[in-house]
Request: fold
Amino acid sequence: MTEKIHPIVELLQQDQRYHIEAYQFVREALAYAQEILKMPAEEGQGEQHITGQQLCEAIRQYALEQYGYMAKTVLNSWGVFATGDFGEIVYNLIRIKHMKRSKSDRREDFDAVYDFGSAFEPVFEHSGSDEC
Reply:
């Protein structure tokens, strides 16, 4: 008797670039975008649809919320080094039917959305006083 392998396990065996945590995080970030950020649906879409660029921004915000200054380090430890990696993860999940895409979605929508070197850096605000 042949046991059926779970699609995510099979995916991880076929494409070893990303850790399972990266896939789970992208799915959580999608839910975060839909529920917390209340990202709007595109015109003409019956259900809420988030573009690649919107998902990348939601991932950035969610990563900073979850991991603070360590966000980039955590993502890098999962094999994620650029927004294009989010596109690879999303399209792997689409391939195994764990995510959906619209007709207008493209893998390239995730490329160079922001620079990883600066997107996860802390932002320090100047108080306006020059005193130390």
Remarks:
- Residues 23 and 89 are 6 Å apart (CA to CA).
